[in-house]
Amino acid sequence: MKFKLEATDSLSKARAGEITTDHGIIQTPIFMPVGTAGTVKAVHQRELDHDVKAQIILGNTYHLYLRPGLHTVEAAGGLHNFIGWKKPILTDSGGYQVYSLSGVRKIKEEGVTFRSHIDGSKHLFTPESVMDTQRIIGADIIMAFDECTPYPCEYGYARRSIEMTHRWLKRCCTHFDNTEPKYGHSQTLFPIVQGSVYKDLRRQSAEMIASCEREGNAIGGLSVGEPAEDMYEMTEIVCEILPAHKPRYLMGVGTPVNILENIALGIDMFDCVMPSRNARNGMLFTKNGIINIKNERWKNDFSAIEEDSDLFADRNYSKAYLRHLAHSNEILGSQIATLHNLHFYIWLVSEARAKIIDGTFSEWKNKMVKQVAQRL
């Protein structure tokens, strides 16, 4: 993987860059749709490519490991072949899912023992086994195995957690470096900064992660319920330490406002289930603000979902029709809303990139954060 920094904003830390992988080029800042179980819910891969214009998508190690299982993914020739996606893929390590299974998992130095949410069967994830699993899945970018601490989190627990995460990281790096990719394309490993909302722990973790000298770095544990101000403060601290010539990935974030503010702090890569999950519940993110399409006010609004969009679904379906589909629980409603939200998120980061390059990002961002946050 290669990263080229193309432009920086003079009034903020925002950057425009380009990541090159064996499956294609990713222009940053970038938003990555989440395809948990080998699918971005309600969206065809062709639509992701041609309509949403996704440059990279996510797969989830925990979910793919359990179902369809590694044997099936490997027999298919890796996740790219299995799902019919020719562009880059990133996989998380499963650490966040294991964190969310707090009632059915045990964390120890060896790794994490947990029970499947599907059938209750018992499994063990170690730093080494997670590297092997992600080798089999075959993503272009894979994540180190870490512990994602909850919020709120006591200082002592957060400190012990990052110390173990750092020990796990060394094991991840050693095992990754001693194994080879399986399907003829290269893979790269991103370490993850943790440390809850404690400045000294975040600095300590960022310094350790930077010292590993991998090709990119991630920041975790900042989408678990903490106030946005804490997220921004921790991100700013970490971005001052993580090397500027490598991509920075803020995991699991967030709202359009979160994304714009974190781009201004120096983040290059984002993912979040919010645009797709909220779409299925009738929430649309637009250039002018947030719409609850189920509200009565849209019942006889026959204007396009987003007038100046280049997305077919935005131009050819009305708000009234989408409201009808949502109230009728029609599958097409989820499809249209998901297409819209994902297209909007990728439009937003693409527009941010263009503004960074032409030198107008900060002024544009300050206007957009007010615009996209208002309820319509």
Could you characterize the architecture of this molecule?
The protein is an alpha/beta fold and 376 residues long. Helices cover 44% and strands 18% of the residues. The protein has a five-stranded parallel sheet with strand order 4-15-14-13-12. A four-stranded parallel sheet has the order 5-6-10-11. It has a three-stranded antiparallel sheet with strand order 1-2-3. Helix 1 (45-52) packs across helix 13 and helix 2 (61-75) packs across helix 5. The protein starts with a strand and ends with a helix.
Number of strands: 17
Number of helices: 14
* Helical content class: 40-55%
Distance between the ends: 42 Å
Radius of gyration: 20 Å
The SS-based structural class is: alpha/beta
Question: Roughly what fraction of the amino acids lie in strands?
Answer: 15-25%
Instruction: Pick out the low-confidence regions.
Output: none
* Oligomeric composition of the shown chains: single chain
Mean pLDDT: 96
**Rough shape?**
globular
Tell me the major beta sheet: 5 strands, parallel
Strand order of the largest sheet: 4-15-14-13-12
